[in-house]
Amino acid sequence: MRLLPPDCPGSPVTATVLAADIGGTHTRLAIAPATAPERPLRVQAYDNADWPDFVSLLAAFLAERHESPTRACIAVAAPVGTGQRCVELTNLSWRIDADGISARLSGAPVCLINDFAAVAHAVPHLDDDSLVSVQPGQPDPLAPAALIGAGTGLGQALVLECHETGRLHVMPTEGGHSDFAPQTREDWELLEYLQGCYGAHVSWERVLSGSGLVELYRFRCGKHLHPDVRQAEREGRDPAPVITRLGLEADDKTAEATLRHFVRLYGAQAGNLALQTLCRRGLFIAGGIAIHLLPLIASGGFLDAFLAKDRFRNLLTRLPVQVIVHPWPGLLGALTAAAACD
Fold first, then answer.
1. Which end of the chain, N or C, is less surrounded by CB atoms within 10 Å?
2. Domains, the chain, ranges and CATH?
């Protein structure tokens, strides 16, 4: 994969922007020219456990080359309201304070955005090497794009670009919490199983997420878990990667069936989002789950479910569908958002 090339190390840079993508375990930081935020000068990853707070990590990053960015955007794995200046992270005991970060940056403007919104900001800057086509369609560059991504949860967003001003408008949604819609007898049985776990309301996120993949596996196999899955649970590890490996390597028939079912449901909800947004610019699939399941997504089950919308099948065949395979789209999006931060 060709990554966006950095500027040459000695080239003059009049102003730079800073971006951070803070996850539960790792944080990535980058510096880029303000006039070309999609071309980072450097990118660095850190283990969060090594740092007491984000400001300490940031200070170490900036001290390496005595950098003084003029704007910054911090992407966090938490809801961020319009104009919100402080966020408490859910899975990490860090408090991200935009005003405190701004003070550390000599008063530079700092904005906070949700990490999935940051990925949406990257969409216009993704080149062909950062995308894998599932359906080429007939892209309309003046139309909206939509983004869906299964991971810890299920993110969905709409992306609109104003071609008069060049400004990007990202509209995050909570569409992942809309009602799961069964299509087959097996889906109805899955719904009843999940209602037994979570109550009457079962959202798409309960199915299309890392934890949803595990529940889908449990639904299919009952108490007869593969020994590797049992071991992962005994050791306190996330069993989802184990189930994915077993299914892709054909080491467990139940895991194989689980992945096929998951991909079909993923395609169905992606099709729902496409109809809800008429994303003629394209539907973009984000997140590590999609990358790991790319062989299955590309094999047809995803697209079959995506197109299974009766009278609107022909419309959906004209929408481009692509998987984002860029290694750090959230950081790339945060860099471009930083350049527009006021």
1. C
2. 16-121+328-339 (3.30.420.40), 127-325 (3.40.367.20)
